[in-house]
Amino acid sequence: MSSPITTEALLARNKAYVPSHQPIPTLGKLGPIDGFPHILVVTCCDPRCIPENFLGLTTLDAITIRNAGGNVEMALANIVALDTLVDFREIMVVKHTDCGSQMYTVEGVRGVLNERAPGKKAEIEKMELGSIAGKTLEQGLREQVGAVKASGLVKEELKSNIRAFVYDIASGGLTEVAV
Fold this sequence. Notes:
Blueprint: H1 7-17, E1 39-44, H2 51-54, E2 63-67, H3 76-86, E3 90-96, H4 106-116, H5 121-126, H6 137-150, H7 156-159, E4 162-167, E5 174-177
Parallel strand pairs: 1-2, 1-3, 3-4
Antiparallel strand pairs: 4-5
């Protein structure tokens, strides 16, 4: 088994990458109208679930947010902040099979955190942890997308363009979930 990757190894990879880097247009040269992506993909941070791979994304195709469990509700602050700049027209929420968010519980994580930082109970209780333990991926998608659609912070025309999918890590395919 190989050793886990280190920050130093990643820095070495970056150094090797720099000579082939092609400059990316600055925000001053892009605007919401002329080239910045209008689609947002929210998916899991699991390294087996890479949207650039399973969606064939290239630079400026989409903006991606990755977090524990592909939790769109946890991404809400990012969504509304970015939308003021880029004017999103669609959101694609993708959960994946064999996801760890179905394997840990909020109570379990909070228990570990309370042991680690006993004086931070109030802060820990406020944290959204992304668990959908005891639920199907489809249930998790419906609940989380429903919460985002219910938010008064998301513009109405965007709410109707939020779609949800399950990515099968075995087949590579996406299945749409009605939300």
